[in-house]
Each structure stands twice: as structure tokens, then as C-alpha cells.
Specification:
By secondary structure, the protein is mainly alpha-helical. It is built from 9 helices and 3 strands, in the order ββααααβααααα. A hairpin with a 3-residue loop joins strand 1 and strand 2 (about 10-15). The longest helix has 24 residues, at about 190-215.
């Protein structure tokens, strides 16, 4: 089962790693080789010349995009609708796509992120952030917290106080295991900026945890 903590614009959801919801969780990120990205760039160029050639890309990435959306909505029907919209817009904008040394999927995730944000702006509902205990452990490890001096509930509480834009960075980097270069591509910022933002957020989290422990 899972618990939900509400913030002003997101719902922070803690998932048990053994629940059926895990089929919709984003799979651990795998390193994509430069040769694989270059080969895919050839596929993209073929699709730019002939939209019918877009189907292999659609079939390859629909499930990862669906999982990405589902983590943020917890709604299967809505996730399917938004995912379809992502690929419609991707096809419409494919002519302007340029290879930047990151996987094509990062561009799709960026479109998906924008579609999700637009949906929640329009609906005024709260967005879900899916949290698993082992990823919380990685956040704590990155902050160099003594494992005997922090509790899962305390870290969730500290995360719950972050701004939505800060949570999004933690979500991409730690909960979904994305490299900084891909985080930057999805958010539309530079890689160095993504790193700086991440470590500043971690510092704020660490201070909040220390403050809560002294109360």
C-alpha cells in the first residue's frame, strides 16, 4: 500500500516496492551508448523525411512514456490519453528535432513533462510524486546522512516542504535515476545548472532534517 502527503501542488506518494503499481514505475535508467544514439538519430532523420517511419520510435517509447506519466498521475486512463498526446505533438514537431548527444527519449520526456504540467494547471488537481524507500535511501546517502540518524518519515516530511520545481529535480535525478544531462534536457536547462540546483536542494533538505531533529 502507500501513503500520500499533500503539498500545495503535488501529492507525494510512498510506494511499497512489492505492490502491483510497480509495473508502471519507471525502470532503472540504462546508459545509452553514443553509437546507439547515433543509430537512432538515423531513424529519426528517416521519420523526419517520411512520417510513416515514426512508428518504430513510437512502439519503442510508448511504454516508458506511459510509465513516466503514470508516476505523476496515478490514473491509467489519463496516462494513456496524455501519452497519446505526447506522441502526437512529437510527430508534429519532429521536423525541428536536433540531435544533442542525449537519447531521443529525453526529448519525449520533456514533451510529456510539459503536457503533465499543462493538465494540472488546467484541472487544478494535485500531481503525484511516486517515492520508493530505496530511492529515499539514495537521497540520504547523497546528503551523507548517518543511516542511524534519519527516518523515512522525516525525509518524506522534508521533501513535502519543497517547491514543486525542486521536487521535480529530485524526482528525475533520484527517484527515476536519470543522468544530469537527461535531467537538463527534460527541464530545458544546462547540465551544469541541473547539478547546481540538485545539490542546493539537497543542502536545503539536510538543513530541514537537522532542524526537525533538534525540535
Amino acid at each position: 500500500m502507500f501513503s500520500i502527503l499533500q503539498t500545495s501542488s503535488v501529492a507525494l506518494r510512498r510506494d511499497n516496492t512489492k505492490t502491483v503499481n510497480n509495473r508502471f514505475m519507471t525502470e532503472p535508467q540504462k546508459t545509452v551508448s553514443a553509437s546507439a544514439m547515433e543509430a537512432e538519430w538515423l531513424e529519426i532523420q528517416a521519420a523526419q523525411a517520411n512520417p510513416a517511419r515514426f512508428r518504430p520510435l513510437y512502439e519503442r517509447y510508448f511504454e516508458p512514456i506511459y510509465r513516466f506519466v503514470y508516476r505523476r498521475t496515478s490514473n491509467a486512463d489519463l496516462s494513456a490519453d496524455l501519452s497519446s498526446q505526447v506522441f502526437l505533438k512529437a510527430l508534429q514537431r519532429l521536423g525541428g528535432y536536433e540531435y544533442r548527444g542525449v537519447p531521443f527519449s529525453a526529448w519525449l520526456f520533456r514533451i510529456a513533462s510539459n503536457e503533465i504540467a499543462q493538465h494540472f494547471r488546467d484541472s487544478r488537481n494535485k500531481r503525484t510524486v511516486s517515492v520508493e524507500d530505496h530511492t529515499l535511501g539514495e537521497v540520504a546517502e547523497e546528503m551523507e546522512l548517518d543511516e542511524d540518524l534519519w527516518q523515512v518519515e522525516d525525509l518524506i516530511g522534508a521533501l513535502d516542504q519543497l517547491k514543486p520545481s525542486d521536487i521535480e529535480i529530485i524526482e528525475l535525478r533520484f527517484f527515476e535515476q536519470r543522468p544530469f544531462k537527461e535531467v537538463a534536457e527534460i527541464l530545458g536547462i544546462t547540465e551544469s545548472n541541473a547539478k547546481v540546483k540538485t545539490y542546493r536542494i539537497l543542502e536545503r533538505l539536510k538543513k530541514r532534517l537537522k532542524t526537525s531533529q533538534t525540535k
